[in-house]
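WARN retry 2 of 3 for item q-0093 after timeout on previous attempt; input resubmitted unchanged.
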Amino acid sequence: MMAASRQMLDREPSEIEMLLPWHAAGTLSARDSRRVDEALARDPDLARQYAVIREEYAETIALNESLGAPSVRAMTKLF
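OK item q-0093 returned
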């Protein structure tokens, strides 16, 4: 598994791989989203990579939501 991970880091990501974070966030156009879905359906390695990206995305959202709103003092200072 480590060798496969190292190989992935040593090569340039494909166009579809570069779209995965935006697909996870739901911000792709319908055309690009369809292209990514088709690639995910035929490539198990890409699907595993996408699963990791979705997990990281969900964890980032959970962390940001747990931080809460800034204090009134911080908001006043900011504005």
